[in-house]
Amino acid sequence: MMKMGLFYVNECHDQNYERAYGEMLEQIQYGEELGFESVWLAEHHFSAYGSMPSPQVAAAAIAQITKKMDIGIGVSILNFDNPVRIAEDYAMVDILSNGRLKFGAGRGYQPIEAKGLGISLERTRERFWEYVEIIQGLWSNDTFSYNGEFYQFDNLRLTPKPIQERIPFYYACISPESFDLVVERGAQEFMVTPTLMVMDDVLEYTRRTRDRLLQKGIIPSIHMNLQMNIADDTDQAIKNVEKEMAIYFNKVLELIPGAKGTQAPATYERFAEVAKEFDGPINVAALNQSGVALLAGSEEAVNRLEVVEQAGVGSMSCWFKMGDMEHKKVMRTMKRFADEVLPYFKSPAQKATVL
Fold it and tell me: What is the main EC category here (predicted)?
C-alpha cells in the first residue's frame, strides 16, 4: 500500500521564522498522531520560497519530537555544499532518529541560490554524480578514498557512521533526462513531482523508468511529492488554496532558470520552457485538472491517488502547507485527509485501527 507523509519547503513570507518553524514542528507532531508515516524537507536559500537552508538541522529537531515517522530529505542540494560534510551531517541525523532517515538528492536549479553561495550552475550534473559517489562511499565503507575531478581524498573515515546499513538514497527526477540518468545509474530509489510536466506525463515516465529498472533486476522504491487540499468538493478545495497557490507559483516562477526571459544555463532549458508556459495569471483550476495539484473531495482524491499508486509509486508526501496558508487551515486539511483519504491506503491491519 502507498505510504502517506507530509512535505515542507516551509515558505515564510512575513519573515517570522520563529512562528514558521514552530508551526511546522507542531504540524509534524500532529501528523504522526494522525497516522502519517513520514515527513519530507526541502533545502532552499535566500527567498520566502523556503526557509530551510539546512534541512539537516530541521531533521535533527524532528527526530527528537517524533517516534515513528521516517524523516525524508526532498532534497538536499548536493552541489551547494561539501559532500563530506553532507555525509557527516546526515549520518548524525540517522543516529538521532534511530535509523529513520531517507535521503533525497538534487543538483539545485535556482540562480539566486547558486549566486548567493558563489556556485556556478554550469556542469552541475557532473559535479552532482561525483558527490553522490562520495556520500554513498563514505556511508558504506569503513574508510574510503576518492580521486575525482572536483574532489580527491585518501582513506577517509566517517565519524560517526549511520545506524542504517544502507540509507535509502532517492534521486530527484523532474525532467526526461533525469529519468534516463536514474536508469543508467541503476538507482534503487527515485522521487518525482508534477512540476515541469503534467501528471499524465509524470506517471508515464515513472512507469517506463520502473519497468526499465525491473529489466535490470532492480525493484525500485518510488516517492512522489504533490500539492493538495481535500474539501467537500473540487470547487471548495480550489477556493481553499487559490490565494496560497498563486503566491507559491508566482514566487517560484520568479526564481527558476529562464524567468522573465533570462538565459537558462545548459541542462536547465526545461525550466525556461515552463517559465514561458506560465507567462500570465495563475489558473489554479487548470493546475488541478492537469494533475499538478490534487484539489478535490475525498472520493475523487482516493481515485486519483490510486492511479498514482498503480504507476508504481510506493510513498507520497502531501504538500498541504503552501504559500502563506494559515496554521489552522493546514491542520484542518491534514485532519480531513487523515479521516477520509488515509484509511484507503493502509494495510488491512492498519485500517482496523483507523476506521
Answer: oxidoreductase
